[in-house]
Here is the input.
Amino acid sequence: MIERIGLSMEKVKENGTMNNYEVETPKNITIKGILSLLMQSIEEKDGRSVISLGMGDPSAYSCFHTTPTAQQAVADALLSDKFNGYSPTVGLPQTRKAIADYLSRDLPYKLSSDDVFITSGCTQAIDVALTMLARPGANILLPRPCFPIYELCAAFRGLEVRHFDLLPEKGWEVDLDAIEVLADQNTVALVIINPGNPCGNVYSYQHLKEIAETAEKLKILVIADEVYGHLAFGNNPFVPMGVFGSIVPILTLGSLSKRWIVPGWRLGWFVTTDPSGMFRKPKVYSLLFAFCVIRTWHFVGSQFL
Ligand SMILES: Cc1ncc(COP(=O)(O)O)c(C=O)c1O
Here is the structure.
């Protein structure tokens, strides 16, 4: 186990004691990797049960299931024989429109289908966002703690990661002063996860506005991961970051996985919430479109929904 979590065995003394060793933090360690090591280390004889607080699949519990309306819609689409071919790589027009209409309900302006790109879960939306923004020398600002896939995708795309802390004493708000110190002319975006994973934060309207104003001042995009959108506990209602799209362009990422309790359907979205049309100037739409077409995404969810 020591080797697997990155401690060098030469530093363990011959008699088995571990004085004077140094912990070398491996670059590729993940929370899932640590969890699985811990789970493997549990004594079989120990009768106590372990509750995982890292379970992100609501369907694993029988008390949570999706609505019969959604199940019926998928069954009808499957049986209709109309959706057995390849769908457009950016998603079916009716799927894109349905998501634009759904998200527009909480925004002070209306999204169009052209703003919406269908992905294989929110995970692929994260990958699309980071791939699109990566270029030599670029960096991205990630919250600490963060959902680990961001770091993995950034490493894979050669994007430098800079971390800003979430402040526990302020309800895990973003440390805006740190953002200003970290950002430079090579910073392409900052990521917020709201409602938050892993901290469970739900940001207030005021805090989200301050994030937008800071990003605008620094001339960087905001990537808003809203995969837990509307799953808000506590006093703050869920406010989509897109509400502040007129201050700074927002890339909103989401999926059916959590709110509809169907992570296995793998239907997600990447949405440009940009009422001032700033994305249009640097041709982000055509870039996105080209990117989506290059990568052939054929998956069950987008064909049906
Ligand atoms: C913050 C966050 N973003 C994205 C995802 C991935 O969502 P999906 O299952 O739709 O790919 C998760 C899943 O747990 C998540 O917690």
Remarks:
- The pocket of pyridoxal-5'-phosphate is lined by residues 56, 121-123, 147, 193, 197, 225, 227, 255, 257, 263, 268 (CB under 6 Å).
